[in-house]
Amino acid sequence: MTTTETTTTVRFFAAAQEAVGHDALRSDAATVGLLKQQLLAEHPALTGILPRCAVLVDGARVDDDFALSAANIVDVLPPFAGG
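User: That's the sequence. What structure does it adopt?
Assistant: Structure tokens below.
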């Protein structure tokens, strides 16, 4: 029997990584909005950080209604200074 991976990879950077305690995790959230809710519930230290983060799916900004799949890579990038 073949199993299909149904979880999305979520990668964290800088302060978001520190708040979560991992550089990546897996999520079965169906949309970006549900992913954000799940992250806040499981990692309260993200409360002051996540609302300011850029959340990119496969390198592009998307809205909270964007449907996630196992093929997606979600990056959580806090704001940073410089350029």
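The chain has a mean pLDDT of 90.
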